[in-house]
Amino acid sequence: MTTGSERDGQVMTAADQDRNISSSFAKGLAVLAVFDAETPSMTLAEIARRSGQDRATARRGALTLVQAGYLRQDGRMLSLTPRVLALAGGFLQANQFGRRVQPVLNRHARQMQIEVTLAMLDQGRVLLLAQSTVEHGHVTYGFTAGSHIPLAHTSLGRMLLAGLPEEEAAAGLAETDLPRHTEASLTDPAAILDRVGEARAQGYCLTDSEFEAGITGYAVPVSRPGQTPIVAGCSAPRGQQPEADAERLLRGLQLCAAELRQAEAVDHL
C-alpha cells in the first residue's frame, strides 16, 4: 500500500514530496531561524556554523535575504530587520489572534493580576504564541510572542510534553538539551518524565525555581485531546502562601483555557 499525503485528489509519495521541495528556500529559512536574543547579529561564518550549512550556501541565502529586506548588513555583521514581523503578522491575522485570543488573555490577566502566555511546541523548544498585556504584571526575562524558551525546565514545556503520547514525549525530551539553569533544575530525563507524567494525570503543571530562581511556573492545557498541544501559563515569585497562590492562579488559567476552547480559538493551529 502506497503511503503519502493527498493533494488535489492525488496521493503523493515521499519521493514526490521531495521533488516538490525547494532546498534553497528551506536553507534560507534556516538562516532566518538562527537569530535569537543571545545572538541578534552574526557574521557569515557564524550563520553557516549555526545553520549547519557550508559558507558558500549560507552566504547566498543571507545575501538573498538582505536583498529581500529581511536581513540588514553592517560591515561583517548581519541582523534581522522589522520586516520579519510581517511574516508573524500574517499568521496572527489569519488566525484572528487580535479578536479571539488577545482579548481573552488580557481579560484573565487583569483578573489574575499577572501575565498570561499561550504556547506550543516548536522543534524541541517552547514557542510563545501570544502574551497578555497587564499593568504591574511581574516581568521575568521579558520574553515576547515569537520567543523560544526551554522545554524541560518550564511549566509550559512540561505541560506541552504531557499533551503528547508517552513515547513521543520521551523521544522529544531525548533530543533536548538539559542545562542546569538553577540549582533546582532537574537534569535526569527519567525524573523530568515523571513530572511530565504527573502533569498529564492531574491536568496542570507546576515548576519551582528550575528556570529562574525563586519563580514558580504554572501551566494548563488549552487544546483538546488529539489536537496539537497548546497550553496557557504564567509565572510568579514564590509567595508566602504557595498553596493558596497555586490554587488561585491555576483556577484563573483553567478559566482562560476553557474560554479559548469554547471559542475554538486555537483549534486550527
Question: Which characteristics define this entry?
Answer:
single chain, 269 residues, alpha+beta, six-stranded antiparallel sheet, three-stranded antiparallel sheet, 10 helices, globular, disordered N terminus
Short structural summary:
The protein has 269 residues and is α+β, with helices and mostly antiparallel strands. It is built from 10 helices and 11 strands.
Descriptive overview:
Helices cover 44% and strands 19% of the residues. With 269 residues, it is of the alpha+beta class. The strands form 3 sheets. The chain has a 6-stranded antiparallel β-sheet with strand order 8-7-6-11-10-9, with helices on both faces. A 3-stranded antiparallel β-sheet has the order 3-5-4. It is globular, with a radius of gyration of 20 Å. The model is unreliable at 1-7 (pLDDT under 50).
In the sheet with the most strands, the strands line up as 8-7-6-11-10-9
Q: What is the H/E string?
A: EEHHEHHEEHHEEEHHHEEEH
Helix content bin: 40-55%
The structural class is alpha+beta
Rg calc: 20 Å
Number of strands: 11
Distance between the termini: 30 Å
Based on the structure, what is the oligomeric state of the protein chains? Answer: single chain
Contiguous uncertain segments of 5+ residues: 1-7
- The pLDDT mean sits at 89
